[in-house]
Amino acid sequence: MASRSANIATKDSTRQAIGAGFLLEYNPENRSQRLEEACEKILELNPDGQGSYGGVHQEKITVNGSENWRTTTDNSFESLKLDDIEKIASVGGIADYNITTVPTAVKQANFERIEDADADQTYDFQGVALIGNRDMSMDANVLSGNVAILEGRMITKDDTNVCVISEELAEKNQLEVGDYLQFHSVEAEEPVQEATIVGIYLVKEQMEPYMSGDTYRSENIIFTDLHFPEKVEQDDPLYETAYFKVANVDDYDAVKEAIKKVDVNWQWYDLIDNNGNLDTMASNFNDLEKISNTLLLVVTGASFVILFLIFIFWIKNRTNEIGILLSLGIAKGEILLQILSEAVLIGVLALALSFLIAPAVSNAGADYLVGQQAGQAELQDEMDAGKVATDYQAPDLTVTNVETEITSYMLLIDSLSVGVLIGLSTCAASVLIFRKNPKDILSEMS
Amino acid sequence: MILEAKNVLYSYKSKRDKIVLKNVSATFEEATFYAIVGSSGSGKTTFLSLLAGLDHPVSGNILYGGEDIRKKGLNYHRRHNVSLVFQNYNLIDYLTTEENVKLGGRKNAGELLREVSIFREDWKRNVLQLSGGQQQRVAIARALASEAKVLLADEPTGNLDEDTAQDITEILKESAHKMNKCVVVVTHSGELAKQADVVFRMKNGELQVLERIDDSSAQPRS
């Protein structure tokens, strides 16, 4: 029971510790459907099939003499809808939210990027990547603990034209907080946009590049305020993810239900539980809970059988005494009561012992599962190591301690269970002896 | 008449067709020492167990003070009306001599132990540390500790040497004659039977009087 309660406590406290939230992304499967619908709409509006609708553009092209259709999308099609994000953010229980843009390739105007001479730059933009955030503290890289501020501060929702650069980039260009960086789009050198450096970050592990080439290499990732990338790119914003932070983790499930009721087209979106490694942990702990429950049943059943056999053996060994007491005129009920009292006394001692040992056993069990969880997370990291794209980094979570406690409720339930178990098994075992009459018992003794 | 068997018929549950006791009747008086003899399997121990209320007859009655013992219950009968002594002593092996005697009733255990010649140094000893004869004395002391007016003994000297058996017989006789108890002993011992006031013979489930000192004390009826 202690193990069972330990896992629940740990699950909740862990969620509280890392902060829980929801991640909103476009549903990739639904994207194809939306694309088809937009194309049909274009066809409906334009008899020749060429035109635009909802950020989807369709045109007829001739390649090597043959006619083909080319369909392209712009940021207005690919981006999460700001209205929808704000609707979700207004749900009660959401403390704050963040919007993160897709890593946007831009060209640097007044500084040099970090380059690897050996890297294949054939398809590279020769630039750097900007990641816009409404509130950088809720960026996935920050939440995961991979990115931390070395100097200065993070970007907040009230900032405009600011950026946070990597320590390597700062070092290479002798940049400091308060300096200005200039950017322009990949397509045109004008206009140039200027952002003030408000912070310098360091990473624990290199961020996975979005695409090949040094534009997206970890050191060249520059965090900016939400709208800066679109200003540089001179295009519509492209919001890739939105993160909604839950105020009180105890309300997590209720908030999730409330979000699902928000009037947005949920077919477009995926709402992802953002509990870091909690899902894995929760799964482990839920497993532990199931195991604990099964174990409780098995232990109860096995205890009954074992106690039953022990009491049969015990009572059988006391046949002599029972026979003597019966011959002295002591009623079967009184004898049974005496045997029960002795069994209960042993049970009380066993209970006291189990309550002394239970916290240590539960802690060991929970620690083992946390270790398993850490192992699984490590394994997952290794499996993910070769992947190029990274849309979401799970928080790097380490649980160092698991506490268990014996509550008075558990004491009561345990005592009652043990009492019932002893009572049932003693009575069941006693039936074998007491169904005989005293004469038969005394004959057996002879 | 304190105890009476009236037309007692008994057969084992598993073998109902084999009659162990055939309408046995007998009466027992206080201050009398009875012996029941008979060959093995004749039904004498079964008869004693019915008198003791350890089982009940298939038909017929066991009366104590003229009242069927089933009326107040067999437990009550064993607790208040009769006390038992067995061939194998039946002492509780984890208790001391004194504690075993106290199981029998409220009487002063020390005094009773002295009466059966168990000395003070043995009172606190575990009963298993005593000799067979001493254990039987303790068993008798336990039976005497009871307020019961009837003492029933099943082969009380069966496991004992001649001298010790004689001592035990003396104690039983004294219980009958000095303490005014009705003592009924089932025995194979001719020596013991010789010293009884009334001797019954159990043969093929029927009870006969072999010898009686005083005709008014017991009557064979089957």
From TrEMBL, chain A:
GO molecular function: transmembrane transporter activity
Keyword Transmembrane helix set for record: yes
Localisation: Cell membrane
InterPro entries: ABC3_permease_C, MacB_PCD, Macrolide_Exporter_MacB
Membrane-crossing residue ranges in chain numbering: 295-315, 335-358, 409-434
Keyword Cell membrane: yes
Name assigned to this protein: Putative ABC transport system permease protein
Keywords, in A-Z order: Cell membrane, Membrane, Transmembrane, Transmembrane helix
Membrane-related topology note: Multi-pass membrane protein
Domain ABC3 transporter permease C-terminal, chain residue ranges per copy: 294-435
A single GO cellular-component term on record: plasma membrane
Domain MacB-like periplasmic core, first and last residues per copy: 75-261
Domain of life: Bacteria
Organism, scientific name: Catenibacillus scindens
TrEMBL record, chain B:
Alphabetic keyword roster: ATP-binding, Nucleotide-binding, Transport
Location of the ABC transporter domain: 3-222
Pfam families, sorted: ABC_tran
Record keyword ATP-binding present: yes
GO function terms (MF aspect): ATP binding; ATP hydrolysis activity
Domain of life, per lineage: Bacteria
Sequence similarity: Belongs to the ABC transporter superfamily.
PANTHER family found in the cross-reference section: CELL DIVISION ATP-BINDING PROTEIN FTSE, LIPOPROTEIN-RELEASING SYSTEM ATP-BINDING PROTEIN LOLD
Protein name: Putative ABC transport system ATP-binding protein
